[in-house]
Amino acid sequence: MSLALVLNQSAAVQNLQFFSLVVSLLTVVAWGRWVMRAARNIRALYPGRPFEFTPGWSFGWYFVPFANLVVPFHATREIWRASCADDDPYSFDGALNAWWGFWLASNILANMTTLANAVAAAHVRDLAGIIAAALALLVVTTINKHQLLRAAARVEN
Description:
Blueprint (H helix, E strand, L loop, with lengths): L2 H43 L9 H6 L10 H14 L9 H23 L2 H38 L1
């Protein structure tokens, strides 16, 4: 293998890593904006109802070590339940629970694979991340749908 080929492959890997970092940062910003907006929406839909998590802390807890393993889930569950429970009495937290489980698994595996540099674990991590992303889309669309239905019902009344 020639030195030029190795250098070209190294540059390609660095470009891919940079692109991945940019996409990750944009995803964090988009997720944060959505979480805070959804938390503000439930306050507008249920004025006077007490909520445990403020819109800012609904997202901020993702950055608090150890608490970020549990508290963001509780904040998102609060948004989920306030958005969905009244519209659908059969609504349950299954999609939300699955999303959080896969999200935690992908992050834990990401830390393990960084330490161990294990290729097989990296594939499992990536698969868990893809499933978590698909479930996150389901959570977002479900909450958005129910919040829009609730807002439309309020306008009609």
